[in-house]
Amino acid sequence: MVGYDAQYYPYGSRRNVVYGRNGMVATSQPLAAEAGRDILKQGGNAIDAAIATAAALTVLEPTSNGIGSDAFALVWVDGKIHGLNASGYAPQNISVDQLKEAGYEEMPTFGKVPVTVPGTPAAWAELSDKFGKLPLTEVMEPAITYAEQGYPLSPTLAFHWKAAYNKFTKTFQDDIYKHWFETFAPKERAPEAGDMWSSQGHANTLRKIAETKAESFYRGELADQIDDFFKQHDGYLTKEDLAGYKPEWVDPIKVNYRGYDVWEIPPNGQGLIALIALNMLKGYEFSEKDSVDTYHKQIEAMKLAFSDGLEYITQQDHMDVSVDDLLSDDYAEQRRALIGDEALQPEAGEPPRGGTVYLSTADGEGNMVSFIQSNYMGFGSGVVIPGTGIAMQNRGHTFSLDENHANVLKPGKQTFHTIIPGFLSKDDQPVGPFGVMGGFMQPQGHAQVVMNTVDFHLNPQAALDAPRWQWAEEKKVKVEPTFPDHIAQALQRKGHQIQKTLYPYEFGRGQIIWRDPETGVLAGGTEPRTDGNVAAW
């Protein structure tokens, strides 16, 4: 099985790799992981378990995702990998001119403007219909039960909930936000660790989604409620936008990294950035993980990859460069040649012109799922549809109002998307799903996890435990408190502006499940930077 040295346990208590054979679920919330495992025990497959876990997470970790989220999935079934893009698009009656006339110079972070069509409920229904074994009503029952009966908050969840509440009490003054407080702060405060929280609105909505296979959300009662709310507040999203939505099955993209195929969802997702970086890095040999040269080259490659990604990535049919050109060996060599001994100021190249939850699931039959969903920036837009528990995402915030930018806002267009599931295979056999949630940290986390696994032979838990770095902008690089001081100082001397941060959650929260091709044994790791759990069977 890939990666078996274990040498990094920086957060105090040593976590061990979890093994199983009949099934496994890894995610950031223990109760959600167990909900998915229970579905496996009831006869469901990895796809059913992924849906159950994802639905439960909208209740059990609302600080990171919700019913109004977007989602992406990589699914390995019957020897083939499938990609699902369930990201929504901008409303049909919004435009750059409208927003500029209203006084906006850039897309706002909160409120009605950045709300796009949610894709997550459609993702659950689509995955269930195409690959699931159990009825959607059975698969979503754990989520409904937790919403109705309540659950006690875990420590990390309580920390982020309180931080959001403290921020929102200062910034959410308009009437459009009052339903957020009714739903998520019913006692006029944030719930604390160990406090019970429930939401009948969540339960009712999840039940309608399950019973109608998401039809209610897009073309029924729930769609009417969403439409009415945005009409009352002179918003842009309409029931016609919802009715026209359908998630898209896509061909995943990949690079081969030292014999392993690393898979990502194609644009509009930023998984392309991780692949661009790995395509450059495979031109080097790395004999030691904790060396100045290793970190320097990783950071430089990621800076160049991000420069290209932020310049070119948007909805794929709106891109003026092709994915194949960005991932070509010739272009990787051209970009790699820019990496010298000193930190560079990154700029986009010229190729030829042509807040999130993550979960991994696997079953005993060889099916595996890499799934991610998010409202973006924690609770999302701050807009909650009254009585429903539906917190609307603010994905539209990443649109540009610059008419000359690839990711410029247009009606019906999908924006540059930060959430990305990852998957590893070798010799046409699945190794397994992996992911690192957390905004623009995600492709950086993907590249670091892949290298920890392939180059440095770390097992799943050690690959996640290892101290991380995050390129922020220009020459600024953030590192964790556990990042080696002598290496941080050496990187400073190379021109990197190193900033140690006290907050591990800034560096993403990941999960991994690897499968042994000969025995079928599953090995899972979960993030030490959150309340993660691996539930095995």
TrEMBL record:
Presence of the UniProt keyword Acyltransferase in the record: yes
Documented EC number(s): 2.3.2.2, 3.4.19.13
Source organism per UniProt: Alkalibacillus salilacus
Assembly: This enzyme consists of two polypeptide chains, which are synthesized in precursor form from a single polypeptide.
Family annotation (InterPro entries): GGT-like_enzyme, GGT_lsub, GGT_peptidase, GGT_ssub_C, Ntn_hydrolases_N
Keyword Hydrolase part of the UniProt annotation: yes
Designated name of the protein: Glutathione hydrolase proenzyme
Keywords: Acyltransferase, Glutathione biosynthesis, Hydrolase, Transferase, Zymogen
A Pfam family annotated for this UniProt entry: G_glu_transpept
Reaction(s) this enzyme catalyzes, per UniProt: glutathione + H2O = L-cysteinylglycine + L-glutamate; an S-substituted glutathione + H2O = an S-substituted L-cysteinylglycine + L-glutamate; an N-terminal (5-L-glutamyl)-[peptide] + an alpha-amino acid = 5-L-glutamyl amino acid + an N-terminal L-alpha-aminoacyl-[peptide]
PANTHER family documented for this protein: GAMMA-GLUTAMYLTRANSPEPTIDASE (AFU_ORTHOLOGUE AFUA_4G13580)
GO molecular function: glutathione hydrolase activity; leukotriene C4 gamma-glutamyl transferase activity
Record PTM: Cleaved by autocatalysis into a large and a small subunit.
Lineage: Bacteria, Bacillati, Bacillota, Bacilli, Bacillales
UniProt-listed SUPFAM superfamilies: N-terminal nucleophile aminohydrolases (Ntn hydrolases)
Top-level taxon of the source organism: Bacteria
UniProt pathway annotation: Sulfur metabolism; glutathione metabolism
UniProt record similarity statement: Belongs to the gamma-glutamyltransferase family.
NCBIfam families: g_glut_trans (TIGR00066)
